Amino acid sequence: MNKEIPYKIYLEEHEMPKEWYNVRADMKNKPAPILNPATLKPVTVEELSPVFCEELARQELDDTTALFEIPKDIRDFYKMYRPSPLVRAYCLEKKLDTPAHIYYKFEGNNTSGSHKLNSAIAQAYYAKQQGLKGVTTETGAGQWGTALSMACSYFDLDCLVYMVKVSYEQKPFRREVMRTYGANVTPSPSMTTEIGKKINEEFPGTTGSLGCAISEAVEAATSREGYRYVLGSVLSQVLLHQSIIGLETKAALDKYDIKADMIIGCAGGGSNLGGLISPFAGEMLRGEADYEIVAVEPASCPSLTRGRYAYDFCDTGKVCPLAKMYTLGSGFMPSANHAGGLRYHGMSSVVSQLYDDGIISARSVGQTEVFEAAQQFAKVEGILPAPESSHAIRVAIDEALKCKETGEAKNIVFGLTGTGYFDMVAYQKFNDGDMSDYIPTDEELERSLSTLPKVE
Amino acid sequence: MNKEIPYKIYLEEHEMPKEWYNVRADMKNKPAPILNPATLKPVTVEELSPVFCEELARQELDDTTALFEIPKDIRDFYKMYRPSPLVRAYCLEKKLDTPAHIYYKFEGNNTSGSHKLNSAIAQAYYAKQQGLKGVTTETGAGQWGTALSMACSYFDLDCLVYMVKVSYEQKPFRREVMRTYGANVTPSPSMTTEIGKKINEEFPGTTGSLGCAISEAVEAATSREGYRYVLGSVLSQVLLHQSIIGLETKAALDKYDIKADMIIGCAGGGSNLGGLISPFAGEMLRGEADYEIVAVEPASCPSLTRGRYAYDFCDTGKVCPLAKMYTLGSGFMPSANHAGGLRYHGMSSVVSQLYDDGIISARSVGQTEVFEAAQQFAKVEGILPAPESSHAIRVAIDEALKCKETGEAKNIVFGLTGTGYFDMVAYQKFNDGDMSDYIPTDEELERSLSTLPKVE
Q1: Which of A209, A136, A173, A43 is CA-nearest to residue B431?
Q2: Are A424 and B172 inside 8 Å of each other by CB?
Q3: In this structure, what DSSP letter does residue A337 have?
Q4: CA–CA min distance A173, chain B (Å)
């Protein structure tokens, strides 16, 4: 192989995948079915349809179809920012003086600033196809809300976003981006839903949580004619849409005959990680190849490394289906960790099952070391990474430094899910040496896990 | 020509220009020489060298060499974010229902968020080559300071940024990006320079200005061993470095046999506009082609459309050389216009001369109509544009709508210089219907122009 590897491997537009890949089709141990919270029985498409768009409900429950055609309208939208580059981190390698080859798939090159747009446009498309008026959702850090606002604006759909109150107040710029794209943004808990009123009554002055915002968004969708609820992570449909990340990554590597040794992704709800690793995990499941796949989570919210694999609620209000997943308990409140998108108490049931089956491994990292990696990366690679993405950078750097010890020229691939432009408050804390590294105690986790629902 | 034009025309890395183009070499009427403020005689390389790096001083005064090789280290850095895409705005065309073909050269795909990095890395490189310890500069909106911080971090140079005090306070996130890249950021006017102390004394409580920050940065450079001053716009060397924008644009158009009819750029100091149009203006100057080139400036700071073509000071402290340019007078204070990068009182002497010779035309646009265009663009093209860039979008949309009237299928090319992530305060004002459209009166301009220095 003599082709010189460029800094950025771009696929041509015609090389962009035309199908999403559903890794569940290749899993012998399928993820456990999601359960109707009222009956504790597996939900049907019919039961999901009042909440989700029909086609998305079908995708959610389909664990046998391997490939789903990407509709042309979605592919056209993708072309505005896809194929995204797979970047060879030449400058980082040089700085670390490592024999390892480091690659990152950069998903921050669109205004939402993250990979979330891949699924947002798909979900908005199916809502439009179904003739809906609009969709509702929640957002914490704001990446998902921004992505959905953009997608809805493109398809001329109404977009109601319940934004965790503390973010609404502390991240006014995120809010304004969504408003610029035409979204209606409400701080949660609000007085516009029954569950919001109830929470405001029970906990006066609360600044909200993701689980609570989910409950409000679901209520807003189901109580309104022509609206459905959409979600940016955790769900299997989201992982399906996000598989485009992994498919492009694999195509770009193949183009230059590069065989990845390690694939590293940050893990919150699992949308990026699941999408990035899907085709690689698929090869492992089919016995065609072997990779070391690492999920990286914050030590402050360690669902894989310290959670329990059990059925749990996905939201605080307990209106959503139950999923079997690695969870810290739906009542778990992560500490003030600034990697907003990685604060979810649970984990995608697909990722959970792959982890339980040993296809992927997991590590947790502290916040200060994450920001150190972020700064090191930014200084040589130019891109200011999102705190979430920087969890993967931390482990990629650690692994590259191990290669320096051993002399191995491993091919390390990680997902750079987004940019940190709206996370400067966290960077400021880091710059000021004022970052917290809180890790939950065993007692805290036990307490939170004791609230798991009894299923079976 | 049957090649289908993709959404994004990417050049391959090996197609990236290896030389910058100096449009002055093809100008029959050369820009007037810059003058030593002490002698009012044209400055020499020797006189400039205490302020600028030597090679940059040479580039500044060279109006005959057409091509300058881009050093390999700079090309390697460029590869992290270049070649930048030339995007066919299919979605905007469809939304406007215009027969025109609209293309934009997107320079916001790097952490500095703008084209400024193209010159920052060049200036940092030459400083490093000369064995300097560091560089000083000023920043207003913060794009240039961010770009320079990144460049200095890459070459391990000290970076002292004087940031206009009002921006330092109102744009803390910009400041933190610079700090993350290791820059030392000081609010200007400060008490760290003589000129800063003097201005603070004369105008207690002042929130600063770009002209004042320039004076402080120059003093900081010249009063320190091993430091030089660098500047992100106006200078001819900056236009030289920025010519890579135009060269890539032309190469991408040529690749698909597209002949531009109009080329539109926003104009503050002229760095983006000059870089974008250089190769096209060169063809016009050599009689090889004809284009309609339009500089777009804010109605609140209309140096081309309402200024005077005369020698003027480049800074408030009058320590910099004098340049002959379209100017509103160095004492001109633009109103609270949020398009921060377009608030400079003067204009690049190259752009000024090309304008005076009729090679380019100019228009001014109001702020509200600029943000309307920005929002319209963002909604369909996905990218949230910087307010500066949105001046060009406004005119591109206006021209595309004219084509709708006439039925012409013009090829309209504009420069999308950057993203608006750090301009959400301005977007918020727009979203709230609270944007100001102040235009200076004739009397104000007369007053400001009456302070022009007497030269000749």
Answers
A1: A173
A2: yes
A3: -
A4: 5
What percentage of chain B reaches a pLDDT higher than 90?
82
| Test the B interface: residue of A4, A5, A7 with most B CBs within 10 Å | A7
Please report which helix (H) or strand (E) contains residue A412, including its range: strand A411-416
**pLDDT higher than 80, residue A425:** yes
Q: What's the CA gap between B327 and B330, in Å, rounded?
A: 8
Q: What mean pLDDT do residues A267-271 have?
A: 93
Instruction: Give A240 to chain B, closest Cα distance, Å.
Output: 22
In 3D, which of B212, B211, B182, B179 has the Cα closest to residue B195?
Answer: B212
Residue B384 is nearest to which of A90, A180, A419, comparing CB atoms? A180
CA distance B380 to A150: 8
Q: Work out the mean pLDDT of chain B and round it to a whole number.
A: 94
pLDDT in tens, B228-253: 999 999 999 999 999 999 999 999 99
- Give the model confidence (pLDDT) of A10-32 as tens digits: 999 999 999 999 999 999 999 99
Mean pLDDT throughout A188-198? 94
Find which of A35-44, B106-115, B401-410 is predicted with most confidence, using mean pLDDT. Answer: B401-410
CA distance B276 to chain A (A): 22
- State the alpha helices, DSSP H only, in A84-209: 90-96, 117-129, 143-155, 165-170, 172-180, 194-202
Model confidence band, residue B405 (pLDDT cutoffs 50, 70, 90): very high
Could you tell me the pLDDT band of residue A154, with boundaries at 50, 70 and 90?
very high
Partners of A110 on chain B (C-beta within 8 Å) are 382-383
Number of residues that make up chain B: 456
pLDDT band at A1 (very low <50, low <70, confident <90, very high): very low
Q: What is each CA distance from B215 to A56, B196, B197, B271, in whole angstroms? A: 60, 8, 12, 20
Helix (H) or strand (E) holding B170: helix B165-170
For B260-269, how does the pLDDT look when each residue is reduced to its tens digit (9 = 90+)? 999 999 999 9
Interface of B with A in 353-412 (CB under 8 A): 375, 378-384
Asked if the Cβ–Cβ distance from A80 to B7 is below 8 Å, we say: yes
The single-letter DSSP state of residue A13 is G
Q: How far is B434 from chain A (nearest CA, A)?
A: 14
Find out whether B374 and B108 touch, Cβ atoms under 8 Å.
Answer: no
Using an 8 Å CB-CB cutoff, list chain B residues near A10.
Answer: 10
The whole-model pTM stands at: 0.93
pLDDT band with cut points at 50, 70 and 90 for residue B339: low
Strands annotated E in B149-232: 158-164, 184-188, 227-229
**Could you give the maximum distance between any two Cα atoms of chain B, in Å?**
67
Residues 116-155 of A with CB under 8 A from B: 117, 150, 153-154
* Residue A207 near chain B (CB below 8 Å): no
Q: Report the C-alpha gap between B402 and A383 in whole angstroms.
A: 39
Compute, in degrees rounded to 10, the torsion defined by CA atoms B387, B168, A178, B144.
40
Q: Do B80 and A381 touch (CB under 8 A)?
A: yes
Q: How high is the ipTM of this complex?
A: 0.89
**Residue A303 CA, distance from chain mean position:** 14
**A to B CB pairs, distance under 8 Å:** 124
| Residue B428 touches partner A, C-beta closer than 8 Å | yes
pLDDT tier for residue B1 given thresholds of 50, 70 and 90: very low
